[in-house]
Automatic annotation (TrEMBL), chains A, B:
Enzyme class: oxidoreductase
Record family assignment: Belongs to the acyl-CoA dehydrogenase family.
Domain Acyl-CoA dehydrogenase/oxidase C-terminal: from-to ranges: 286-453
Biological function: Involved in the assimilation of dimethylsulphoniopropionate (DMSP), an important compound in the fixation of carbon in marine phytoplankton, by mediating the conversion of 3-(methylthio)propanoyl-CoA (MMPA-CoA) to 3-(methylthio)acryloyl-CoA (MTA-CoA).
Domain of life, source organism: Bacteria
Domain Acyl-CoA oxidase/dehydrogenase middle: 167-275
This enzyme's EC code(s): 1.3.99.41
Ranges for domain Acyl-CoA dehydrogenase/oxidase N-terminal: 44-162
InterPro entries listed in its UniProt record: Acyl-CoA_dh-like_C_dom (IPR025878), Acyl-CoA_Oxase/DH_mid-dom (IPR006091), Acyl-CoA_Oxase/DH_mid-dom_sf (IPR046373), AcylCo_DH-like_C (IPR036250), AcylCo_DH/oxidase_C (IPR009075), AcylCoA_DH/ox_N (IPR013786), AcylCoA_DH/ox_N_sf (IPR037069), AcylCoA_DH/oxidase_NM_dom_sf (IPR009100)
Catalytic function, reaction form: 3-(methylsulfanyl)propanoyl-CoA + oxidized [electron-transfer flavoprotein] + H(+) = 3-(methylsulfanyl)acryloyl-CoA + reduced [electron-transfer flavoprotein]
Gene3D superfamilies in UniProt: Acyl-CoA dehydrogenase/oxidase, N-terminal domain (1.10.540.10), Butyryl-CoA Dehydrogenase, subunit A, domain 2 (2.40.110.10), Butyryl-CoA Dehydrogenase, subunit A, domain 3 (1.20.140.10)
Name of the protein in question: 3-methylmercaptopropionyl-CoA dehydrogenase
Cofactor(s) essential for the protein: FAD
Lineage: Bacteria, Thermotogati, Deinococcota, Deinococci, Deinococcales
Length: 611, 611
């Protein structure tokens, strides 16, 4: 059975030493007034969170995978054994309310803290965690743009966890391309709407954890324009709500089936049929795509945290196995009296383990930096500071989603490899991590879509302004540390790559404006560009972490080797992982040329490109 | 449901145009005498093979995954619905005998042909194909080193497919490290041996396809030395064989359980308990490891062909989906009257498809080159030619196993990505390819072990002689084509990388001899070295294929665009995949230094390295 211990030591290092988070949060009146920015309080909350996930969620992970969800003939869905009991404990302990608005029953803790909670939940049970995870996305959108009336009825229920929420976007013919959805809304006489259509791939779309489910649904109001500009967002409860707030009449939305999937078996992925279901407009008519992105951005970071969380636990389990499993002999011998040494002595095994550790710790640093930036974006008293933070959040969100889920999947695969043949056997649990991690690269916008969002929308569309802000942060750090011998080699690599990111962006940007093929040039290199960008961000964070660690070591404060490990992991990162940028620079420069192949290659009956 | 069409056009291109195989094989008396080297005959056999796999194996692939195998209380195992009927058709058509020795009922066809058959079988049903696959490995070892008596009794049954064979190596505590196995052999008075011990992960170890199973088992004869030098190989039939050749008394080997695995559900992975089972020595006492490697080398190439086969079918299905699925609009529009264009117009989708195509076609070229070299090694009349071929086979086998399975897995993952959310759903079949492909990287010697075999044993142990022979082949090709404008850019990249492979080998070789840490230096870089090496081999083959294709185009013989596709895929390979060598060169140069971290990093209670 897999093991997991929440990485609290690392989290505290990042929170206090890298980010100086309590001091940053104390500048924000919202947290100061709610008394939720206190460092000791945040530590305690995270320790409590660790106990919850280790004690309640971890034991249900394999159960959920093996049992899966069951749909009954009436459209109801039963979750795996133990899921509901764990959910009730989670609610009772107040976790659903952790970072929610106190005006609706929330505890008003920083996103920084809920971010760590979500990482830990994903380390122990992705499928389970998606029930409250989706709910949180629905909360975000409703809180941001819902009417006061809707908020008063639904937010307290969602915040308390009494009800959960969903995001209903995808249709059979429309995944990436939401502009072509067919679900329709028709105005009723009472101000509500009748919603009809079929939504698929609705995570947590039906279940037995709560007596009601609040669906947020994209639909086209009759008479609205074609495409994304004619889409509105509606709230469709599974049960209509009585005057007293209790669930009343069953609404016209029914789970038609649940999917059989590669992984996350414990989460019900529902096909939902809306048949004249009563819905309520959320936000403005025809602004549904904008409102949806409030949920979606939260969901993207949450998905990135799935990659991070699975990467952490896969690494931990590979490490435990590598220390325990003996196989082959190493010189000098570790077990001279026995016939084999623990496999952790073999450098190739260390390479696999260090890959997991280096990507995970950098990912955690980025995620927490991003989460603190979300807090800053929402609550900093200074408008310029809010704008700076918002730009950073916009830039880093697609990287957090794609880079962390790609790395998380790769770590799961490589950690499985450490187990040899045992990694392929279900009872060891490693293959579940691979299956569960895979979805993170696909949903909430495929990682290819994230890359287009980064390069096309976030970088090129504003002429590189957001990118320039980040470049200035990096450049300032590099300049401040010139002459630091301990960091010189890293900063040299980082500086060159950061400059190269700028020049590559210029090259792609020029091609992008060069005519009708410009969009293809962006599309051709976006995935490699995001990966290059991710390495620059991780390289920056590793250099910053190494700087702090060097200072602690120099001050004689490295009692347990934690800081030496930070320095050595940073060195590993720059020696073994960062060089991927050399390949990526070449493939980005190669552009679209080698992709614009003759259509007959693909057996196409007519020419497609340039047709 | 997944689709698959055997890539006969490409196979014929490689067989006739790249390898000039009929002429090469005609030089070998064995094939000349058996009339099995005729080009038309080989084409016909492969067309027949394509019909078999498409018609019989493909429809059973999902069935096998969903049903899996069932073990009963008596230790017997039932294979999935249809497996036995397909096996009977396979036998009846003579496929089990295809490349076997006519002296034992075989058809004496070249390995080149059976290699293609195995690729096609793996494209359509890996789990099913492992039953005859393992049998073939057992055939190879028994044919090479078995006594005439054993061969007379068992080989005709294995060749005809009446019985199947297995390889019993792994034990619970001994996978990579076979020197520490505990299974014991005790001499009986009649010249046979009593075998006792537990073997795990025995593919095709128990099933209902045939009335008998022939296990080849590694065990230590009482009194033999410790380690690999004290291991012998034994033949242990499930049923002892009567005088008339029919299965008789049940032998003391029983399937104790079958594993629940990530994939290849249709193949029974058995734990076998040997309890004083009667066994017969195969080859010489204490030479078991050498004899085992006869099977193992066959199994390694066979495993590489799993990666190749799954890569091909995953690519084909992604291509079909990408032409059918419409999503987003492309400028210029392909479907101007409809609301979306087929996703194959998007360059990032083409990048994913071309990655599959480029790795698969190069892999097929390497596998067929290797297979023809095996034919040459065994049957060429000239001893020097046999030795040359043997060296090439030795060098390329670990690359074929590791590079093809790593690429095959990555292609399966990337092809699944083309499907978006549908790729994660079982009914589309893509997620099964990912799960089935994963085992190829693990078994028959993990890919890490393949890398050590390549760098440590095949390259460094003979002072680089085998490597030098390959380098000469490449250098000759490059020099012969100097001044060919069409190839200049590719040959420039290839030549530089080939030189770099030499210099990297020198650097690692020097470190390897530098003292007790030398072994760690090899271990630290072997995986990256194998990948670098693989790219050099694939680059060479792409350049050769491009040369042939350019000539055909220049001669006006490219009617259907096949040769243009070869040229463009070669260009894609050098533009987008080959540049990985830039990163690998850096990580190989970085060596072991960043891996030799302080042991406290891993929470080790005592120092391990340098202890």
């Amino acid at each position: 059975m897999p093991v997991y211990k929440a990485p609290l030591r690392d989290v505290k290092f990042l929170m206090h030493e890298l980010l100086d988070a309590p001091a940053q949060l104390a500048k924000m009146p919202f947290y100061a007034e709610n008394d939720t920015a206190d460092g000791d309080l945040m530590n305690q909350v995270l320790e409590e969170a660790a106990r919850f996930v280790e004690g309640e969620l971890l034991p249900l992970n394999a159960v959920g995978d093996q049992e899966g969800c069951t749909r009954h003939d009436d459209g109801s869905v039963t979750t795996p054994t133990g899921f509901k009991a764990a959910y009730n404990k989670y609610r009772a302990a107040g976790w659903t309310a952790l970072d929610a608005d106190p005006a609706f029953g929330g505890q008003g803790m920083p996103h920084l803290i809920s971010n760590v909670l979500v990482e830990m939940m994903n380390s122990t049970n992705v499928a389970w965690s998606m029930y409250p995870g989706l709910s949180h996305g629905a909360y975000s959108a409703l809180h941001a743009v819902g009417s006061e009336e809707l908020k008063a009825i639904y937010l307290p229920k969602i915040v308390s966890g009494e009800w959960t929420g969903t995001m209903c976007l995808t249709e059979p013919h429309a995944g990436t391309d939401l502009g072509i959805i067919r679900t329709k809304a028709t105005a009723n006489a009472d101000g509500s709407y009748a919603i009809s259509g079929t939504k698929i791939f609705i995570s947590a779309g039906e279940h037995d954890l709560t007596p009601n489910i609040v669906h947020l649904v994209l639909a086209r109001l009759e008479g609205s324009p074609e495409g994304t500009k004619g889409i509105s967002l509606f709230l469709v409860p599974k049960f209509l709500v009585n005057e007293d707030g209790s669930p009343g009449e069953r609404n016209g939305v029914v789970c038609g089936s649940i999917e059989h999937k590669m992984g996350i078996h414990g989460n019900a992925t529902a096909l939902l049929n809306f048949d004249g279901a009563t819905g309520y407009l959320v936000g403005e008519i025809n602004k549904g795509m904008n409102h949806m992105f409030i949920m979606m951005n939260a969901a993207r970071l949450g998905t990135g945290l799935q990659g991070l969380g699975i990467g952490e636990t896969a690494y931990q389990n590979a490490l435990a196995y590598a220390k325990d499993r003996t196989q082959m002999r190493h010189e000098p011998r570790v077990n001279p009296g026995e016939n084999a040494d623990p496999i952790i002595v073999h450098p190739d095994v260390r390479r696999m383990l260090l890959t997991g550790k280096a990507y995970t710790e950098a990912g955690r640093a980025m995620a927490m930096w991003l989460a603190l930036s979300i807090d800053t974006e929402h609550h900093h008293p200074d408008e310029a500071a809010r704008k700076e933070a918002a730009d950073l959040v916009a830039l880093l969100t697609p990287i957090a989603k794609a880079f962390m889920t790609d790395n998380g999947f790769n770590i799961a695969v490589q950690s499985q490899q450490v187990f040899g043949g045992h990694g392929y056997i279900r009872e060891w649990g490693m293959e579940q991590y691979v299956r569960d991690a895979r979805i993170g690269q696909i949903y909430e916008g495929t990682n290819g879509i994230q890359a287009l969002d980064l390069l096309g929308r976030k970088v090129l569309m504003d002429g590189g302004k957001k990118l320039q802000k980040l470049a200035t942060i990096l450049q300032t750090f590099i300049e401040e540390n010139e002459g630091e011998d301990d960091l010189a080699a890293m900063l040299d690599q980082l500086g060159k790559a950061a400059n190269q990111l700028g020049s590559l962006t210029m090259v792609v940007g020029q091609k992008a404006m060069s005519g009708p093929e410009g969009a293809d040039e962006v599309n051709a290199v976006a995935v490699d560009y995001l990966r290059f960008f991710g390495h620059v961000v991780y390289g920056y964070l590793w250099a910053r972490m190494a700087k702090i660690a060097h200072a602690k070591i120099a001050a004689g404060q490295d009692r347990d080797g934690f800081y030496l490990a930070k320095v050595q992991t940073a060195q590993f990162y720059f020696a073994k992982l960062f060089p991927e940028t050399k390949a990526l620079a070449a493939t980005i420069k190669a552009g679209n040329e080698s992709l614009a192949v003759d259509d007959r290659m693909f057996g196409l009956e007519r020419a497609l490109v340039g047709a």
